Amino acid sequence: MVHADRGFLKIRGADLRWGERTFVMAIVNVTPDSFSGDGVEDPDVATAHAVAQWNAGADLIDVGGESTRPGHQPIDERTEIERIVPVLHAVRERLEDAPISVDSFKPAVVRAAHAAGADLVNSVWGASDELLDVVAELDMPIVAMHNQIGTAYTEPVVDAVVRYLEDCVRRAGARGIAPERILIDPGIGFGKDAEQNLALLRSLDRITALGLPTVLGTSRKSTLGRLTGRAPADRVFATVATTALAVKAGIDVVRVHDVAAARDAVAVADAIVRNWRPAEWTE
Q1: CA 43 → CA 54, 86, 90, 275, distances in Å?
Q2: Fewest CB within a 10 Å sphere: which of 144, 152, 171, 241?
């Protein structure tokens, strides 16, 4: 079993105690070009999707306004802000106590998102010094994900990812950000080919061994499609397989499109691995 006292994250109405169980972060893409086909630009539709994800059992809601799929077209800060701020306002109004993260690595976007009700930063480009300065100023937790341009590495991919994340953690700590508020993500599908993704998934214990809260995002990723031959929307079972393995490795948060399936997977895996039981459990 995985037992570790790594503190807790008090965020809005949630008390996320690391190591107690696995938390589910729901994806809300406010983009027209999401790889998974679930992106929407209409604020009302995106808000309704966020509420539905929460009602399906999500512990956190992750709102993003820029696609990160391979070959995506980057957008400027103004466009990203215009996409996400109305959704953040509306979701916060509908779900007062829901922890909301903003999926962005741009300091200006993070500031605007925080003002609109976001609690947490989820950065797909690690933790730049400029971003960490803003995060520290606003007292926001941060998810720092490994990423790079291209898939060429001068050392084994797992070693490179660990070094990168250790550097993010060191620089975050130097700004006074507490360890329980620095979440790390190995970045499955970002700057990695399919074999490199599988190498990381086999070595998740190297990531959790760093002692920080951890996030894993495998949902509907292309590596799962290559393994199963299925389109993004049909990769639910493949994602669930990685979710169960993530729990076994001690991952704290799984970022997913399909919340209900993830909740079932973590409930069973947590019961086996972490000795977790639902509140209504009786012998």
Answers
A1: 16, 6, 8, 40
A2: 152
Distance in angstroms (rounded) separating the CA atoms of residues 269 and 275: 9
Active site residue 255: yes
Global pTM exceeds 0.90: yes
Q: What is the SS3 assignment for 224-238?
A: HHHHHCCCHHHCHHH
Residue-range domain boundaries for the chain: 21-273
3 pLDDT above the threshold of 50: no
- What's the mean pLDDT when you consider all of the chain? 94
Quick one: CA dihedral 143, 236, 4, 12, positive or negative? positive
Of 83, 192, 221, 263, the catalytic one is 221
Position 31 scores a pLDDT of 85
Whether 10 is catalytic = no
